C-alpha cells in the first residue's frame, strides 16, 4: 500500500522538492568527500615524502659504513705484497713464510686505520692459509677462530671463499672475543688469474650487524618500524627482526631504485619502503605498520564519516520540516480547486501543473467566450450593415440606438459607399500552402477588409461588410469643418488597390457612390455603387468606377445604337471560313473600337453587342458544321466561356483566342483536302501509266521518254512519281510486263525466240535473253526445257 501511494504521487511536487532538498543535502556531503579525498591524498603524499626522507637518512648512514668496507677492500686487493703472494706462486719457496708475515703485519696496520671494521682476513687458496691482522693461520684455524657455528659449517665456509663469483655482500656468522656468535655482514672479493680455474684467494671483510643497528637508533623511523639490508640477490644481510628470513622480501623483485608496497606482516597490514644504495648494490628496507603510518589519515577519515552522518541526520530533519511547511499552502489550494470543480480531481500529477492547467483552462474559457461574443457581434453587425445598405431596418428600433450596440459610431452627416469586387487572384492562392480553397477565400476577404478599413480609418471612419459576393465599405467623413470629396475617396481607393496588389498580389475592382448627407440615404448610395460596378462590363476589370462620372456621361449625348452592320458580320463569318485570322482579328478589333472607344455606347447597348457577337460565332460555327461539343474551335464550352465574360475586354480577348483557333483549324482542313486531292490524282496517273504499258508493251520504241511525252511530263519526274506510288522503278516495271508476256508465249505456242522477242517489244533476241535471265535467273531456252519436263 505504501509503495502504491508513493507510485501514485510519483509526479507530485512534494517528491520534486524532496529530490531538490536531497540534492542540496548531498552537495555539502559530496564537497566533504571531495575535500577528504584531496586532504587524504595530500596527507598521504606528505607521509610518503617524510618516509622517503627518513629512508634516505638510513641509506646515508649505511653507505658511510659500507664505504669504509669498500675502501679497505680496495687497499687490500691492490696491496703489492698481496698481489705478489697471489700471482707469483711463492708456495714452496724460501721467502714464502716471510711474505706471509709481511702481509700479516700490513693487515695489523690496516686494523689501526679502520677501527669500525669488525674483522678481516685474506685466504690464500694454494697454501690453504689465512692471513689476519698480525697472525697467519691455516684455513681450518681461521674458520674455527672467526666463524665456528653449527649453522655455518667449515665446508660451507670453504665453498664460499673458493667459489668463483663477483664481489658481493653476504650474511655470515662471526664469533666474538668472548666466544659468542654474532650476525655480521661480510664483503667477499676474489683473486682470479684464469677464468676456468678456482680463485687464488679471497678477501673477507666483516662488519658487525649490531653495531650498524646501533648507528640507526637515532633515526625516527627505526623507532616506529623495522630495518633490513638486502644484497642484489634479496638476501637479508642485516635485520632488526628476530629472524633474517622474510618471505615477502625474499620472493619479491625490487627492480626500481625507490618505492613502497603494502603487505601483511605479523598479522597486520604494513608498508614496506625501500631504496637502493648509491655506492653499493645493496637495498635498504623499512617495515612500518599501516596503523602507525596512516594514523593521521585514519583520524581525518573518522572525522569525515561522523560529519557526513550528522549532515544526513540533520538534513533529513530539516527536509521533513520544510517539506511539510511549504506543501500545506499548495495542498489547501488544490482542495480549493477540486471543491470548485467537482469534475476535475487531482490525479496525483504535479500540483503546479494541475494549478497551471486549471488557470489555463479558466483563461481559455474566458477567451473562447470573448471570441464567441466577438464573432456573434461581428455577424450581427454585418447583418445590421447589410440591412442598413439595403434599406431593410426594423423601424421599431432607431438607427441611433442600434449603432452603439454594434460598436459603431459616426462623426458627421456625410456618407458614401465603396463596393469592392475581388477579381481572380490565382497568384495569391498559389502563395498560400496548406489550406483548403474555402480557407484561402476567407483569408483573402479578411486581408482586404482589414487593409481597406485601416486606410479609410486613417482619415475618416469606415466599416466593412460582406454583401452579395462583394465587400462593401460604409464611409463616414470626419467632422473636420470641410466637406468630403469624391477625389479623396478615389485616392484612398487607389491607395488600397495598389497596396493589396504590391503586397499580396490581390486585385480589386472598386466602385464609388455619390456623397450623401443623411444616414437614411445609405441604401441610395449602395444602389449607386452597384450601378457603377455594372459598368465594369465596359470599363474593364481592376478599375475604380465612380457613379458621379457615369452619371455625367449619361446626361451627355450617347449614341442610340451600336456599330455592327450585316455586311461586316458576313465578312467576319467569311474570314473564319477561309481561315484568314489576321483579317478576322482586324474586323473584330474595328467593331470593338468603334463601339467602346469612339462612340462610347451605353451599358445596355454594350450588353446587346456582346450577345450579338456571341450569336455571330454560333452562326459561323453552324455554317462550318462544327456545332458538336467535341469540335475544337466551336465547342459549346467555348460559347459558355463567351457568355460568362464579365467585361467587354474579356469578351474581346476570348473572341480573339476563339478566332485564332477556328482559323487554324480551317487552314488545317484546307491543307488536308488539297493533300487528299493530290493523292487521288497521283493514283489516277499511276493507273493510266500501268494501263498504257500493258497496252503498248509490244512496241519496241516504248520507253520512259515516250511515256513522258504521252503524259506531258518530264521522264525523270514521271519515274519519280511512279516509284513513290508503287515502290518500283518504271523501267523495271516495263521489263517485268514484257517478261511475263514472254513466259506466256513460251508456255502456250511453239514459236522461236526471235519471234517471241519481237512480239513482246524487244529489238533482238539477245536483249530478251539478257533481261529474261536477269529477272528469272535462267535463259528462255532453259525455262522452256523446264516447263516441257
UniProtKB/TrEMBL annotation:
Keywords, alphabetical: DNA-binding, Membrane, Transcription, Transcription regulation, Transmembrane, Transmembrane helix
Domain HTH araC/xylS-type: 687-786
Pfam families cross-referenced by the UniProt entry: HTH_18 (PF12833)
Any one GO molecular function term: DNA-binding transcription factor activity
Keyword Transcription regulation: yes
Presence of the UniProt keyword tRNA processing in the record: no
SUPFAM superfamilies per record: Homeodomain-like
Gene3D superfamilies in alphabetical order: Homeodomain-like
Residues spanning the signal sequence: none
SMART domains, A to Z: HTH_ARAC (SM00342)
Transmembrane segments: 12-36, 302-323
Name of the molecule in the record: HTH araC/xylS-type domain-containing protein
Amino acid at each position: 500500500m505504501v509503495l502504491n501511494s508513493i507510485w501514485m504521487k510519483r509526479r507530485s511536487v512534494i517528491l520534486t522538492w524532496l529530490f531538490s532538498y536531497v540534492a542540496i543535502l548531498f552537495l555539502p556531503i559530496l564537497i566533504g568527500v571531495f575535500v577528504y579525498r584531496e586532504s587524504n591524498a595530500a596527507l598521504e603524499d606528505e607521509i610518503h615524502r617524510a618516509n622517503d626522507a627518513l629512508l634516505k637518512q638510513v641509506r646515508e648512514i649505511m653507505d658511510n659504513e659500507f664505504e669504509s668496507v669498500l675502501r679497505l677492500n680496495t687497499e687490500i686487493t691492490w696491496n703489492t705484497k698481496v698481489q705478489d703472494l697471489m700471482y707469483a706462486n711463492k708456495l714452496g719457496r724460501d721467502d714464502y713464510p716471510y711474505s706471509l708475515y709481511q702481509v700479516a703485519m700490513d693487515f695489523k696496520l690496516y686494523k689501526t686505520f679502520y677501527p669500525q671494521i669488525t674483522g678481516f682476513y685474506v685466504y690464500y687458496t694454494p697454501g690453504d692459509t689465512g692471513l689476519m691482522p698480525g697472525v697467519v693461520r691455516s684455513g681450518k684455524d681461521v674458520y674455527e677462530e672467526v666463524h665456528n657455528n653449527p649453522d655455518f659449517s667449515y665446508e660451507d665456509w670453504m665453498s664460499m671463499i673458493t667459489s668463483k663469483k663477483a664481489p658481493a655482500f653476504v650474511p655470515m656468522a662471526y664469533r666474538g672475543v668472548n666466544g659468542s656468535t654474532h650476525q655480521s655482514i661480510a664483503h667477499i672479493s676474489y683473486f682470479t688469474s684464469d677464468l676456468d680455474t678456482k680463485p687464488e684467494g679471497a678477501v673477507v671483510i666483516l662488519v658487525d650487524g649490531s653495531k650498524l643497528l646501533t648507528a640507526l637508533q637515532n633515526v625516527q623511523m627505526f623507532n616506529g618500524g623495522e630495518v633490513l639490508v638486502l644484497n642484489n640477490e634479496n638476501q637479508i644481510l642485516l635485520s632488526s627482526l628476530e629472524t633474517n628470513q622474510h618471505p615477502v622480501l625474499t620472493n619479491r623483485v625490487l627492480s626500481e631504485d625507490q618505492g613502497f608496497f603494502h603487505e601483511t606482516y605479523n598479522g597486520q597490514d604494513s608498508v614496506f619502503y625501500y631504496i637502493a644504495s648509491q655506492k653499493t648494490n645493496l637495498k635498504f628496507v623499512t617495515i612500518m605498520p599501516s596503523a602507525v603510518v596512516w594514523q593521521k589519515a585514519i583520524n581525518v577519515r573518522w572525522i569525515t564519516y561522523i560529519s557526513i552522518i550528522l549532515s544526513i541526520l540533520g538534513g533529513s530533519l530539516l527536509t521533513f520540516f520544510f517539506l511539510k511547511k511549504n506543501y500545506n499552502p499548495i495542498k489547501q489550494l488544490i482542495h480549493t480547486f477540486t471543491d470548485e470543480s467537482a469534475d476535475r480531481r487531482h490525479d496525483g500529477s504535479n500540483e503546479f501543473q494541475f494549478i497551471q492547467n486549471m488557470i489555463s483552462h479558466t483563461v481559455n474559457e474566458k477567451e473562447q467566450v470573448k471570441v464567441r461574443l466577438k464573432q456573434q457581434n461581428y455577424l450581427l453587425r454585418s447583418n445590421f450593415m447589410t440591412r442598413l445598405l439595403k434599406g431593410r431596418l426594423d423601424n421599431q428600433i432607431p438607427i441611433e440606438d442600434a449603432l452603439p450596440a454594434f460598436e459603431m459610431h459616426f462623426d458627421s452627416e456625410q456618407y458614401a459607399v465603396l463596393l469592392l469586387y475581388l477579381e481572380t487572384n490565382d497568384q495569391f492562392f498559389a502563395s498560400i500552402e496548406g489550406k483548403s480553397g474555402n480557407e484561402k477565400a476567407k483569408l483573402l476577404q479578411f486581408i482586404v477588409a482589414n487593409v481597406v478599413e485601416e486606410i479609410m480609418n486613417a482619415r475618416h471612419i469606415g466599416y466593412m461588410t460582406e454583401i452579395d459576393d462583394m465587400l462593401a465599405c460604409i464611409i463616414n467623413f470626419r467632422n473636420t469643418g470641410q466637406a468630403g470629396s469624391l477625389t479623396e475617396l478615389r485616392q484612398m481607393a487607389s491607395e488600397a488597390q495598389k497596396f493589396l496588389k504590391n503586397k499580396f498580389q490581390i486585385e480589386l475592382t472598386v466602385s464609388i457612390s455619390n456623397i450623401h448627407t443623411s444616414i437614411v440615404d445609405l441604401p441610395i448610395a449602395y444602389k449607386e455603387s452597384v450601378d457603377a460596378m455594372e459598368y465594369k462590363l465596359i470599363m474593364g476589370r481592376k478599375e475604380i468606377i465612380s457613379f458621379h462620372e457615369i452619371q455625367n456621361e449619361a446626361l451627355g449625348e450617347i449614341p442610340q445604337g451600336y456599330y455592327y452592320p450585316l455586311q461586316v458580320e458576313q465578312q467576319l463569318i467569311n474570314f473564319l471560313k477561309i481561315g484568314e485570322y489576321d483579317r478576322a482579328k482586324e474586323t473584330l478589333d474595328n467593331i470593338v473600337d468603334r463601339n467602346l472607344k469612339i462612340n462610347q455606347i451605353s451599358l445596355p447597348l454594350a450588353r446587346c453587342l456582346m450577345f450579338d457577337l456571341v450569336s455571330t460565332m454560333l452562326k459561323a460555327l453552324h455554317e462550318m458544321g462544327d456545332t458538336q461539343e467535341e469540335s475544337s474551335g466551336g465547342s459549346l464550352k467555348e460559347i459558355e466561356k463567351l457568355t460568362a465574360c464579365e467585361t467587354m475586354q474579356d469578351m474581346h480577348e476570348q473572341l480573339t483566342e476563339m478566332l485564332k483557333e477556328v482559323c487554324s483549324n480551317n487552314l488545317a482542313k484546307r491543307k488536308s483536302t488539297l493533300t487528299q486531292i493530290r493523292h487521288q490524282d497521283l493514283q489516277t496517273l499511276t493507273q493510266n501509266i500501268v494501263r498504257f504499258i500493258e497496252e503498248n508493251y509490244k512496241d519496241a520504241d516504248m520507253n520512259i521518254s515516250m511515256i513522258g511525252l504521252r503524259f506531258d511530263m518530264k521522264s525523270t519526274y514521271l519515274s519519280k512519281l511512279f516509284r513513290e506510288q508503287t515502290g518500283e522503278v518504271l523501267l523495271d516495271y516495263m521489263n517485268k510486263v514484257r517478261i511475263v508476256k514472254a513466259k506466256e508465249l513460251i508456255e502456250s505456242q511453239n514459236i522461236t525466240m526471235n519471234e517471241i522477242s519481237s512480239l513482246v517489244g524487244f529489238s533482238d533476241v539477245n536483249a530478251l535473253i539478257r533481261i529474261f535471265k536477269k529477272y528469272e535467273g535462267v535463259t528462255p531456252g532453259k525455262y522452256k526445257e523446264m516447263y516441257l519436263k
